[in-house]
Amino acid sequence: MALDLWGMFRRRRRAGVSVDLESLDRSQLPRHIAVIMDGNGRWARARGMPRAAGHHAGMGTMRGIIRAADDLGIGALTLYAFSTENWKRPRQEIQYLWQLVGEFFRSDMDELVERNVRVWFLGDTTVLPAHTQAFVKEARRLTEDNTGMIVQFALNYGSRSEIVDATRTIARRVQAGELRPEDIDEKQFSDALATCGVPDPDLLIRTAGDVRISNFLLWQIAYAELYFTPLAWPDFTRDEFLRALVTYTQRERRFGAIKT
Ligand code: FPP
Questions:
Q1: How many CB atoms lie within 10 A of CB 138?
Q2: 86 carries an active-site annotation
Q3: Of 20, 25, 86, 185, which one is the catalytic site residue?
Q4: Do residues 195 and 122 lie in contact, with contact meaning Cβ atoms separated by under 8 Å?
């Protein structure tokens, strides 16, 4: 049930909506997009609403961006939904976020399956509430044989702890005599990370104005293009997503080389 996203963008363009579709070179789209979905709280506060309302609106945005990325043929999308630092928030807000994970998978699982999306998770999900773990398990199971876009939900994720875990895995292999220290290379290290098998992000988007990485995919974003927008996550529409993609395709990626 792929939506006619291109038709929609063309119609909007004819209607005077801002994004210049002609400047989007579809052959240059990122293979993997990582997103720091920030600003739900501020979005809600600005409207005199509780933070939970911001997260709920953020879930709607997340749904729209998953659909848009899939319609555009993006290979992988990684969404930072809950960091290891987010446990510092009030208990009620944390509980609401886990409730929302359940709400999302209850309402969107059929569509994700239909879209052939593979749902993966980053972070230690074993400490999440039992009901959330059940949704995580079910989403993995229902999509494990799919072959389409990979959507990785980072839940209780922290990049430094992922790197420490990878280091432990490699150290154990060295200890077991399976690997010599001189054989450890970037590929071995990447493969020991939770993102093993997914190409590194080409584009990292962060909404809501802060210009930082917040312990997200530190190893994997070594050469990613960074895109920051002042818009809060609930205001990050499909058009804004497309704008980020246009910007990305217009950048020159040199990977440390010089222009010939
Ligand atoms: C950051 O905004 C957002 C989060 C910590 C939660 C992101 C959650 C969603 C988008 C909801 C749906 C998620 C799933 C997986 C169903 P913030 O609260 O830090 O905003 P603020 O900086 O303005 O306070």
A1: 14
A2: yes
A3: 86
A4: yes
Q: For a pocket test of ligand 1, which of 42, 43, 55, 96 has the largest count of ligand atoms closer than 8 A to its C-beta?
A: 55
C-alpha to C-alpha distance for 176 and 99, rounded to whole angstroms = 42
CA-nearest residue for atom 22, ligand 1, is: 39
Alpha carbon of 55 to ligand 1 centroid (Å): 5
Ligand 1 centroid – CA 36 distance (Å): 9
**Rounded to whole angstroms, how far apart are CA atoms 55 and 57?**
5
According to the per-residue pLDDT averaged within each range, which of 1-15, 20-34, 225-239 is highest?
A: 225-239
123 lines ligand 1 (CB under 6 A): no
- Give the integer Cα–Cα distance in Å for 6 and 12: 10
Distance CA 253, CA 201 (A): 13
Assigned CATH class of 28-158+200-249: alpha beta
Q: Is the pLDDT of residue 198 over 70?
A: yes
* Domains in the chain: boundaries: 28-158+200-249
- Give me 151's structure tokens: 């959507």
Per-residue model confidence (pLDDT) at position 32: 98
Residue 38 annotated to the active site = yes
Of 224, 210, 206, nearest to 80 by C-alpha is 206
This prediction's pTM: 0.92
